[in-house]
Fold this sequence. Notes:
Largest sheet: 9 strands, mixed
Radius of gyration: 19 Å
Number of helices: 9
Number of strands: 11
Shape: globular
Strand content: 15-25%
Low-confidence stretches: none
Helix content: 40-55%
Structural class: alpha/beta
Amino acid sequence: xxxxxxxxxxxxxxxxxxxxxxxxxxxxxxxxxxxxxxxxxxxxxxxxxxxxxxxxxxxxxxxxxxxxxxxxxxxxxxxxxxxxxxxxxxxxxxxxxxxxxxxxxxxxxxxxxxxxxxxxxxxxxxxxxxxxxxxxxxxxxxxxxxxxxxxxxxxxxxxxxxxxxxxxxxxxxxxxxxxxxxxxxxxxxxxxxxxxxxxxxxxxxxxxxxxxxxxxxxxxxxxxxxxxxxxxxxxxxxxxxxxxxxxxxxxxxxxxxxxxxxxxxxxxxxxxxxxxxx
Length: 278
């Protein structure tokens, strides 16, 4: 499954790339997540030319909502495996046999790739989602996997589901935490390497989205105490940005901290709707 939004050229390159590394074109499904009409038609035409299935949604469900909608639309067997990929994902290395061996263990819900910069994901209330250098093991258990192109067991993922309140920037990481809570184990394979170098998450919108959703996660998992920890961390980050001359980033983080404290358990979806953008 390739999740697409408003970038048919990148999506077409990803589908062609997936076919090159061993995925049958007839088994690739592109889910268009509410793209603009012209972009959606370009994507539809590209999929027809590439020989893969195209599914279109009239609305933008957000990352997690798109995946939830797709999971509900199909009947899944327990031995089915699903690659969930962004429209700009590139797989630099993959060992299908090793991935299948990992999923032979019933506690596996996700098998995560390693990234080109060799980092593993973690979570804490104060720091939210963060990364550190991964252990050198060929197979390692991780708290938070990488969502650029990750394998999942769809029959069980549908039971857990993505939290759609995030809309984007956060739900793709938070789902790993709830999988851990449910008793599943996420492994990261060094034989499975992914990159999405085309993605730029440095815009003001991304900064605001990550900050608001980090407050939402803190509320969800730790209550008021966690939210205050996260708000303090955002305030400290805002001060550092201010001292470095980034007044825009500083204002965004302070505003997100204040919004998160005064709007308990509210994520980006509600924030956008309150401003007529959702």
